Amino acid sequence: NKKMNKQELLAKLSATKTETSQYYDLVETDLAKTRYEGSWNIRQILHHLADTEMILHVRIKKVIAETKQVVWNCEQDDWDATFGYFDEPLGVKKQAFEVTRQLNFELTNYFFDGFAKKEFVHSEEGLRTVKDELEKIASHNEKHLEQIRVALGK
Question: For the whole model, what pTM was predicted?
Answer without folding.
Answer: 0.95
